[in-house]
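Holo prediction — iron/sulfur cluster.
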Amino acid sequence: MTPKKVQRKEKEEPRIGVYVCHCGLNIGGVVDCARVAEFAAGLPGVILSKDNLYTCSEPGQELIKADIKEHRLNRVVVASCTPRLHEPTFRAACEDAGLNPYLFEMANIREHCSWVHLHDKEAATEKAKDLVRMAVARSKLLAAQEPLEVPVTRKALVIGGGVAGIQAALDLADSGYKVYLIEKDPSIGGRMAQIDKTFPTMDCSICILAPKMSEAGRHPNIELLTLSEIEGVEGYVGNFTVQVRKKARFVTDSCTACGDCVKVCPQVAPDEFNAGLSMRRAIYMSFAQAVPSTYQIDMDLCLNKHGIIACDKCFQACQRQCVDYSQQDQILTLDVGTIIVATGVDVYDPTPLTEFGYRKFPNVITSLEFERLINAGGPSGGNLIRPSDQKIPKTVAFLQCIGSRSKRSNIYCSNICCMNTIKDALLIKEHWPETKILVFYIDIRAFGKGFEDLFQRARREGVSFIRGVPGEIIEDPETNSLTLIGEDTLLSQLYRYEVDMAILSVGIEPRKDSPVIQRLLNLSCAADGFFLEAHPKLRPVDTPTGGIFLAGCAEGPKDIKDSVTQASAAASRANILMAQGKVIVEAITAVVDETLCQGCGMCVKVCPYSTIREDPETKIAQVTQASCAGCGTCVAECPFSAITQRHFTDAQIFAQIDAITEEAPETKAVAFCCNWCSYAGADFAGVSRMQYPTPIRIIRTMCSGRISTEFIEYAFRRGAAAVLVSGCHIGDCHYINANHQTEKRVNRVWKKMERLGLDKNRLQLAWISAAEGNLFARKMKEIDEIIQGVTPEEIEKTKQILVPKKKGKGEGTEPKE
Amino acid sequence: MLKSIWELFNKEDLFECYQCARCTGSCPAAMVMKCYGPRETLLRCLNLGQEAVINDERVWYCTTCHVCEDRCPQEINISELLTAIFNLAAQRGNLPEKIKFGVDLIAKTGRSLIVNEKVLKDRQKLSLPPLDPLNIDEIEGILKKTGLNDAIELS
Amino acid sequence: MKYAFFLGCVIPVKYPGFEKATREVMKVLDIELVDLPFSCCPAPTNMKLAHYDTWLALAARNLCLAEEAGLSILAMCNGCINTLKEANLILKEDLQRRNQVNLALEGSGHCFNGTIEVKHLLDVLYKEIGLERIAEKVQHPLDGIRIGCHYGCHLYRPPRLMYPDELSEAASYVPVSMDQILTVLGAQPTQYSRKFLCCGSALGTNIDAQAANEITREKLQHMKKHRIEAVSVACPSCFSQFDRGQMMLERKHHDGFNLPTLYISQLLGLAFGLDRPNLGLGDHRISLQPILERVGRSS
Ligand SMILES: Cc1cc2nc3c(=O)[nH]c(=O)nc-3n(C[C@H](O)[C@H](O)[C@H](O)COP(=O)(O)OP(=O)(O)OC[C@H]3O[C@@H](n4cnc5c(N)ncnc54)[C@H](O)[C@@H]3O)c2cc1C
Ligand code: SF4
Ligand code: SF4
Ligand code: SF4
Ligand code: SF4
């Protein structure tokens, strides 16, 4: 896919039509629209200029369409509400009339003008004129663009074969797509295969999971790759190429799981599946219901290493001759269109909390170990026994929030452990009703459907809930019984409880290897280490990278129901992409001018999507159009002006700055706002009718990362009194982390201003979210004060000494005036 | 005027306490003294204000073992909070006699125990160096500057 | 190696024998100890609680004396360590505090510069001298006596101030030096429940001795349960709890613990075969006889 060359200038002369909208009294009640339209008519290139009551109405749109045809308009500017509202409407109207939608431009004279300057009609009208002047100036430089269509490969990859991965794979396979299900362990099933019963319904976990596992195992559309991990991912939405290492199993597919081999194997090790509570051989199957139902050899444990055969007992024992010590790892290359990440969670290891004695006292165990103990398929055949003496405990304690909600481990609530403990307590009560059960908690979080019921049931059955986690567990050296020392906060009383066994209700945490997945797939992680969704409410299973989705606990702690729900959601999102068979990429991507690129690699470093590559030979940067999100950070970074962002070109932005500073620049501030947060924040200030001073003129870009130091300096050189750069809060950037570059660039200009003895306060940086209209309004007042304080001398001095830095090559970014 | 405790300790840190009681559960003083424990002290500071705490003689039950801080899952610097409470209590005149005595002795002699003839003799027997009186002017000068006498009432 | 020897108040006044033992042991280990006119540290259990600024300034004065002599400090008492280490760390890191303190010190001619370290005897033994060199000096191994270590809270808590370089992310800090030293002396350091519980000393000296002794009793009970034969301490205040406190407890509860308590230098001295009169063995309320017999040093 070769990017189209940017059309630098349209050949034909601009024929611009301007429409100033009254929006009833919303604009017309404050701004003198007729005067604005009259003013616009006098601007060069404007063929006609009208004011009308409702431009977005049917007649309003029809008027534009008719004018385009009648007057051969090749640019349309509407001065009305925010483009975030009606840009699509007007674009469609233009397209209807045969005008390329990218030749349409808007001036926001409602949210950014009439609504926020209700009481100063004169100044509002003047500002509206400026905003129209900016839009007209920009419109002249607009170019027709064609959005890109990328085909989507109709195959999916699911990473992780827990319940979430299985569900997602089945949904997609049932929809008719080929699915590769990758699982690093010998069997699919994940955590759910390890647990005994499930809250809140108390179903047997493996009984409900096993049918799904086998279905996934034999589904004609699913290719199951166990003992497999991804090693490389290339490509972009719809077109990923994935390298997978399928580790040698040393037992072939013809294994019937008869188990004859196991009896003869001399090598033993702790069994991971049973949380180390029992032993397994070097040749083994992780659990009875494993899918695939095939044995494997743990080569780290087997006596045959590096091709030297020291033992062939299992080979001899297998009648079907399935054992093959010489099997090698395979590297597979898969082409897929979508990827679902369902890598699940690890369980917190409480060893560092020495005061609880885990690993020191045999009768202190974790909740995962408990699941295996009480499971009929587990090491004790489902008998709850104390590890120290194999006796059935009479008193059992559960300690909540171990490894959760703590600065010493993970700060978040693990979401499942409260209910898991309640479930475990009821299980014990079911089999051994006489058992005394104590639950030590901080808060019981029983928020889901059916949860409170279960909690009440546990209390009715006599489970004691004690508010206050023990400070310490001590062990009786003779009996191995435990004493819990702590405070009951509801009674404000110290307690000492002697118990036979204590279960640490451990939290769940991101997989240790999740940084690897993160790097390979270019995902983002939240501070807690879980993968970050594209939007916490509206795009909860998307990732910022197109074509990649999240399911299950990989995205955050959750129970089985939520994992499955999310898996189906992710499958459905992937399904949409693959059903359409193509994706449309908006024509705002970055394009490299190969004649100007010097191969410095600066753009490669800043692109949050790692979508720029250097040609291995020429070093010239290449932007993959399909995965470019259009933040423009690379454009602002390129020292040679070799990258252009379509529809947000340097020339267009310079033209807007020129328009702002054409008259009385010393009374104005140039503001750069990003589409998603600060521009939306300004809109919100408008919607809420927050009143603020008039000097600000906003230039909208998609991301604050688009703002180059040159724009800032140019605005000052043109005599602007102040400049504001604003974007989303750090961590909230809609382009992963592009606003880090914004911060760096503003810092650079600040340093320069300081060095030159200029008042750096005139350049402001503000992080404003879409909800922080009040913050925006406050900032406007601050900036107004700054403007009042700037002297003509200071402005003059700035014009003189804030000169552009020498360009390496190329003509520099400043427009020729 | 007494300082506000929140000038000595960052109030926001306390908001992270969720009253899990691992501190009091570990506290030796809570084990042997009725109605004492760092969890509650902390909550009282937060909900009832410093006056409710610094006038209460129970604050002095603390053995300053700092195990509470050690066990706190939220890493709250409880020992710093307690030191702030003690200092304010002392200024308010809520200071146990025995501590007052020790402080007084340090102010007067530079040592917290009395060095009498028997001590000197015992040391001589073991041929240990004598415990000479300290340069008390120097110490007094320092105490004047740090304002010990203005802050708390000594005998 | 050479250190400024910080006696503190309790050891030189109440337990001069421990001081003697320490001096003798250090002689054997080639450590030179220099006496300086230090004042009370001052104690974290009185001055610090009454008036933090005074506490910090007086601690700074002591640190300055060592700085002026160009020597790091070796102290024998946990209280001293707690004060001097914390003050040293805070004054090294917090320049504002340092300026305030230096202002207070102005008239005395001292100025804190942050040039020295403060070390407890245990750390000098364990980290500076090293177990190997200690092992070389052992002549009367301690016969596998089951000794329970009581480190004392002020030695290591809060760890963020006492051992900032040894913190791991999640793990609670657990001291090991005394156990390790006792192992090379030939004893059998024995773990027991509530090993890291406070002895209760400050509660005793400030408020209520009986209540404090109950805390000690909790520890003694667990020591007994774990068949411990003697207690080793690294602080005179803890010593007093285990020795004098135990005697008082015996009067009240008749537990019959009879757990001899020794200051760490005494155990080193016994193992090194130093002269008995130099080890302060007479300062004990709970008889040491069984222990001395076990190591063949009863007469
Ligand atoms: C002790 C305990 C008890 C629980 N009890 C209940 C309960 O009663 N009810 C309830 O609703 N929920 C319960 N849960 C929660 C439940 O286990 C999870 O919600 C569920 O397992 C999440 O499924 P998942 O597929 O997202 O993750 P997982 O079950 O963790 O599965 C992830 C899978 O991905 C694989 N994988 C990981 N990394 C890679 C990689 N890089 N490449 C390939 N494969 C990889 C793993 O091997 C694993 O098979 C419990 C959890 C625990 C820890
Ligand atoms: S679910 Fe319950 S036990 Fe688990 S971290 Fe949250 S509050 Fe604690
Ligand atoms: S930095 Fe932004 S605009 Fe440039 S290539 Fe990357 S995603 Fe596209
Ligand atoms: S341990 Fe920490 S969080 Fe828990 S109650 Fe005490 S101060 Fe609060
Ligand atoms: S420092 Fe005080 S409050 Fe904290 S645990 Fe020790 S005695 Fe209790």
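READOUT: The mean pLDDT of chain B is 95.
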